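User: Please fill in residues for this 310-position structure.
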C-alpha cells in the first residue's frame, strides 16, 4: 500500500489519505459498461428549470395537511440526496488518488455528481413550493442517521474502496432506485411525476455503476476481502436501512416523517405507503442476496418487527 498522508477531520480524527501518484496517466477505457453510462449521462442531460413542468404543480390547490406533508416528504428527500454532494466528490478523489484504479469511474462520477445537484435543486424547489423546506429532521435521533460521514469513509486509505462501492454504490443506490419507482407509481401530480421520471433515469445509471464495478472487481477479491464486503453490507442494512434511513416508518425516531409520507402517497405527491415500501425492501434484499452470491458473498437474512424475516 502506498504511503498515506494525514489530514485532520473534525469528527473522526485523522483520516489516512493516499499520496497522489499521477503518472503514468491511464485514461483508456477499461470497463466498457461504465464508459457507456458516462456517455448515456451526457446524452440524457436535463435542466431542472426547463424540463420539469413546474406550472402544473399547483401546490396551492392542495389542503393544508397535504401541503405540510409534502413539505416534509420532499425535505427528507433533499436531506438524503444532499449527502451525495460530498460523497460523490470524495469518491472521485479516492478513485483518482489510489494507484491503479480504472479510468471509467473517474469519468462517470462527475456526471453522477451533476445529476445529484439537479435532484437536490428540484427537491428543494418542491419543498419550497409546498410552504418551505424543513431545515432538519423532527428528532435528533433521526438526524444522527444522516450524519454518517460517508465522505471520510470513501477517502480513508485504510478502508476497502471495493467494499464501499458494493455497499453504497450498488446495494444502497439500487434500493433507492427501487423506492423511487414505487414513489413514481403513486404520483398523480404531473410535475411530481415528471421529476421522478428524470430521477429514475439518473438513478438507474447510478445503481448500474455500482453493480458493474463490483462485477469487474470480484474475480480478484480474496476471501478476506469478501468477508470485509459482507460485513459492511450487513452493517449498513442493520444500522442504516432498518433504522429508517430510506424508509422512515421503520424507526420510532422518524414518526413525523413517516406520517408525512403516508399523506403524500395518498395525495399522489411522490411517496409510497409503508406496505409498498416493505414489499420493495423484501424483494430488493432478495435480489441483492442472489447477486452477491454470484460474486462469492453470502448475505444472511434480516429481521425487523415491522418487516419480518427477509
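Assistant: Residues filled in for all 310 positions:
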Amino acid at each position: 500500500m502506498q504511503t498515506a498522508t494525514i489530514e485532520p477531520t473534525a469528527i473522526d480524527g485523522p483520516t489516512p489519505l493516499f499520496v497522489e501518484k499521477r503518472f503514468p496517466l491511464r485514461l483508456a477505457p477499461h470497463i466498457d459498461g461504465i464508459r457507456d453510462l458516462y456517455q448515456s449521462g451526457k446524452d440524457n442531460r436535463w435542466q431542472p428549470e426547463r424540463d420539469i413542468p413546474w406550472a402544473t404543480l399547483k401546490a396551492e390547490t392542495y389542503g393544508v395537511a397535504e401541503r405540510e406533508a409534502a413539505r416534509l416528504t420532499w425535505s427528507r428527500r433533499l436531506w438524503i440526496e444532499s449527502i451525495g454532494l460530498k460523497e460523490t466528490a470524495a469518491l472521485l478523489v479516492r478513485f483518482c488518488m489510489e494507484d491503479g484504479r480504472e479510468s471509467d469511474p473517474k469519468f462517470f462520477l462527475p456526471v453522477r455528481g451533476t445529476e445529484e445537484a439537479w435532484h437536490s435543486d428540484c427537491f428543494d424547489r418542491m419543498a419550497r413550493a409546498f410552504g418551505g423546506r424543513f431545515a432538519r429532521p423532527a428528532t435528533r435521533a433521526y438526524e444522527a442517521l444522516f450524519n454518517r460521514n460517508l465522505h471520510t469513509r470513501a477517502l480513508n486509505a485504510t478502508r476497502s474502496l471495493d467494499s464501499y462501492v458494493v455497499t453504497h454504490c450498488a446495494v444502497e443506490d439500487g434500493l433507492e432506485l427501487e423506492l423511487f419507482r414505487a414513489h413514481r407509481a403513486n404520483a398523480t401530480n404531473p410535475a411530481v411525476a415528471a421529476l421522478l421520471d428524470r430521477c429514475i433515469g439518473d438513478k438507474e445509471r447510478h445503481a448500474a455503476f455500482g453493480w458493474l464495478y463490483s462485477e469487474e472487481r470480484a474475480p480478484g477479491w480474496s476471501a478476506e476481502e469478501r468477508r470485509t464486503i459482507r460485513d459492511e453490507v450487513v452493517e449498513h442494512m442493520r444500522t442504516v436501512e432498518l433504522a429508517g434511513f430510506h424508509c422512515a416508518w421503520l424507526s420510532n425516531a422518524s414518526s413525523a416523517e413517516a406520517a408525512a409520507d403516508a399523506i403524500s402517497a395518498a395525495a399522489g405527491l411522490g411517496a409510497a405507503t409503508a406496505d409498498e415500501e416493505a414489499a420493495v425492501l423484501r424483494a430488493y434484499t432478495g435480489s441483492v442476496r442472489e447477486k452477491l452470491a454470484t460474486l462469492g458473498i453470502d448475505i444472511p437474512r434480516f429481521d425487523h418487527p415491522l418487516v419480518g424475516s427477509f
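For context: Residues 62-297 form a domain with the Ferritin fold (CATH 1.20.1260.10).
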